[in-house]
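In practice, a research group might receive sequence data for several interacting partners and want a quick structural hypothesis before committing to experiments. The following worked case mirrors that situation: the sequences arrive first, and a predicted assembly follows.
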Amino acid sequence: MLSIYQKLTKIFENTLKESLEINQKNNLYNKLSLNLITQSSREDLGDYQSNICMILSKIYEKNPHQIAEEFISLIEKNKNIFKICSSLDIAGPGFINIKLSENILLEELIKNTKCPRNGISLVDKENKKIVIDFSSPNIAKEMHVGHLRSTIIGDSLARVFEIRGYEVIRLNHVGDWGTQFGMLITHLKDVYPEALESRANINIGDLVEFYKASKKRFDNEEEFQKKARAEVVRLQKGDPSSISAWRILCSESRKEFNSIYSTLNIQINERGESFYNPYLESVVKELELKNISVEDQGAKCVFLDGMSNKEGDKLPLIIQKKDGGFNYATTDLAALKYRFSEPPNGDGAGRIIYVTDQGQSNHFAGVFQVAKKAKWIPENCSVEHVPFGLVQGIDGKKLKTREGETIKLKDLLKESVKRAKKDLINRISEEQRTENDNFIANTSNVIGIGSVKYADLSQNRITNYQFSFDKMLAMNGNTAPYILYSLVRISGIKRKIKNARKEEINEKIYFNEDSEWNLIKKLLRFDEVIMSIEKDLMPNRLCNYLFELCQIFNRFYDQLPILKAEPKTMNSRMVLCTLTEKTLRLSLYLLGIETLERM
RNA sequence: GGGGCUGUAGCUCAGCAGGAUAGAGCAACGGUUUCCUAAACCGUAGGUCGUGGGUUCAAAUCCCUCCAGUCCCGCCA
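A structural hypothesis for the assembly, expressed as tokens:
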């Protein structure tokens, strides 16, 4: 419905211009023309509204109600308005309530049923490349709920951009480089010396245990620590045996990650920190040459504006440690520069998005500030940090197992599917249905995984959120099962209609009932929601929309017969079912959630 | 000490490019099934939007004060 909104806005803009001219206040146009029309806050009164007359009241020194009357008569000089609106009413102190005409709503409805993107317009920009940096687990460490949030939010944002026609580069900025590899490689060489020569596919088992073991040695054995430090240097110099050990560790981890990505149905390209290694030195050099960095206590730092430490001194961003090593700030700067640079030595991105937890806000603010100083962010390009809050247990504390250990993502997903399966089996026996194993496995998998994703995405990402299987798997409320169930209801109707009368679904549709019109209007809001996500990067708005759409659909379903309605009415209602189905499917696709025919 | 984020119904949260009566879900209470999956729908009850100020015709929303919680602040990421 954005196209209608734009037409409407145009008409109001012209009218405003005219009104300002009459009152000799032309100079205020730019300021006043922002947000001329908004969604109605009272849907019973109109579809859109304009509050401009209350603002003009002060300027014209006139009663807003009177201004509204004059404003409307100016609008009505443009006969196009009658094609769009059925009424323009003045209410309250001076609101203009805009009701759209049924014809234009029906036109839009038919347009959307034919549009594969459901009315979402394609982006019209020169640089369509967007880098999304998300997921980013660490080698030899287990993925946990923190990675889950990044992975799910990043994937959903990527899907939204893709459907808009952007070229999305999904980057997995894996922690595959750095000091921790010293101890890991040293430990590997000690425990599995044969791995390096035979190149046999060594199974080093639980990588987390492996990590813990090497960390323990690093903390306790002096000799080991020395060897580990030397190993880091060897690795960074490209020593073949170190590199080969490093490759083994990475590929073991990769197996783990990929199995989770496959469970979650996530597409992502691995481009770890190591990728930027060749660029680190030049980044540091350039910052030195541009006099942006200085040496302090042996380390090369950039002192940041607007941030200070406990002593009140400016906070540094360290780009080279006193031992000559580089750290994550250096890597992030190199990555940022590379991503904005033109190919072949860069991605040529127009927008870079980092999906990481809120704890890194300061770090990114620092990195962005330095990049700006170094002029690495080209004109008309933008870089954003998309932070998210912690995942907490029901007790409000960081999610942990009973033993106080971090919960493995793998286990968490398994648990969700297991619970979904238990619920399903209960229901099947209660309803005295018979279903085969295949159905049970697939259904519980879609519900289990979908519920975890939906619970996460439906939350405003900024806030911490309480992880609860009971809530996310509930049939009621803003949950995946509720949404999936609405879709199942439509599938049920479609199955029945095949067996029932075969009516032509033509375009001669008509609607008389409120619950039909409410559904139509909600359906047509879809593109507005998508555009708002593109701008503000808040996938929870799509969930919110989905939930409201399902509520409105379920009311419609409850109140009006479809299959038992007379043929013409049935056809019209089926059009609504079909578009609802399409909207639900597309929305769930954009959230990365699979759908079901029955459940 | 500096900075980020959060504080809305008993609980979990929406709403925060200012707008008309602050919304859901859960929990509580009451109702609806000859009908397309009742995993639904309808209704009742529940709120000085942390505090105090300011801007405005209009503030949960913007600005400032304070209070509470949480995260980050030199060579980990």
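Before designing any experiment, note the following. The longest strand of chain A covers residues 299-308. DSSP finds 23 helices and 14 strands in chain A.
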